[in-house]
């Protein structure tokens, strides 16, 4: 009985590819589930131990009294005194941050969170208030405010050196807030000798150690500011109100430098509207305005550094799965060429077993990479699957050379897929070149095949 052999075989191959694609979707869902577990662990660590940190540079909060007209409950007006505040930042300041970043400090079972220890130093000058408008200032109620997102990351209360004398920050009464900042302050009520220094201006320096999780944001309040951040992590992402004017990144080191004369005044204007720590959080963590022309522009606050996974195993595995359909199409295509060129008969069940072996590759890749490096996991999974398929093909095609040749082809294919995973910025370029090379090879190998003659075969 004679059948249209090629059409039937192509139909069977396409059906198996569809089944394989559904299997890849299931494995992709497994990757997403494992990634959600990791994200939940990071959330638990943030709630129970330490959070990403935001630090607002110290500034002066000075109350003053004004005579104004007030209205009582009966809507009657009368003369009264009202207390208002002004916020004053340093005239200039220089900040440095030295990060020690690790992914082994906080972990639960196999899941790890990136954390850092930040040694931060600052020096600068607060100018005298002679240029400020003459008001009835309440100097005995003046404060130097220093808000920190999560004071659990401090190993000691920071010392603020004013003209060579150290003053220790204490927590303000309204500092504790579940969603706000932990606000620390130095008051003239506690240190009356500071009144004269605040009036005449002073030099300051500040040092503190702060621990945080995955991201650090510095919110400047000085009118002129320089800020340098460096540390032992190669994959750092910069964001916020301003990007660094100079940055460098090596395998295990990064450095970034900022310089700005506008952000301090802008941030002080926002701080002047706040009377409690939760307001600080709302001001600097607002939701995007969808109606704005650039909806994200107004929501970015401070100068932000985010420490990324140098190799995110879930992202890498998910990307590898996206190439899985290409791998199975090439594999089935090579099988089909073997049938045509060598006049072999490979049963659809044998196609399906090879497809299952390649599906198991992604499961092995995910499970092994959760315990070892992604590169090692990829190597082990690729060797296991290529070895299994090569061994199986020896019995299918009854030809050692053909089986070894196919194993080499699979090894090259997995090697190319690994290069695509590592070339994040040039993936499209390399992928398009690879596609061209593959189709050129197929055309070269089949240039003498008489497809009309091959259509009619005994099944």
Automatic annotation (TrEMBL):
The chain crosses the membrane at residues 12-31, 320-338, 350-369, 375-395, 402-421, 427-446. The keyword Ligase does not apply. Keywords: Membrane, Transmembrane, Transmembrane helix. It comes from the Bacteria. It holds the Pfam family CreD. This is Cell envelope integrity protein CreD. It comes from Acinetobacter corruptisaponis.
